[in-house]
Design brief:
Keywords: Membrane, Transmembrane, Transmembrane helix. Pfam families: AzlD. This is AzlD domain-containing protein. It comes from Lactiplantibacillus paraplantarum. The chain has two domains: about 30 residues; about 70 residues, no CATH class. Strands 1-2 form a two-stranded antiparallel sheet. It is extended and about 50 Å long. It contains five helices and two strands. The model has no long low-confidence stretch (mean pLDDT about 90). The chain is mainly alpha-helical. The protein starts with a helix and ends with a helix. α4 packs antiparallel against α5.
């Protein structure tokens, strides 16, 4: 591995780390209004919804999006696991297992 590639990897890691740490360091000494905290509480839900819906649809240039049926089938047990357990880990593991089973039986 060349020094250029190693430096690039290390600098990208540093930038990623700083972008996650610096906001906490800045906010630590500030008083954040309650309305802002309440607003920001919806951000993870919005991000997860966007990722979820994007994975269920397939893009076709010039046409309406289609459905990615294997992802829809795998999401059903994952959604049920989320409703029953309220655990993100259970949802992820159930979704991975469901997709693995679909691929094993040849539906994906």
């Amino acid at each position: 591995m060349s020094a250029y590639i190693l430096a690039t990897i290390l600098l990208c890691g540093l930038v990623t780390w700083l972008s996650r740490i610096v906001p906490f360091a800045i906010i630590k000494n500030l008083t954040v209004p309650h309305w802002l905290i309440n607003f920001l509480s919806f951000v993870p839900v919005a991000i997860m919804t966007a990722i979820f819906v994007e994975s269920l649809l397939t893009y076709h240039a010039g046409h309406w999006p289609g459905f990615d049926l294997p992802n829809i089938y795998a999401s059903i047990p994952a959604i049920l696991a989320g409703i029953l357990t309220k655990s993100l880990l259970a949802v992820v593991i159930t979704g991975i297992i469901a997709m693995a089973v679909l691929r094993l039986v040849g539906w994906a």
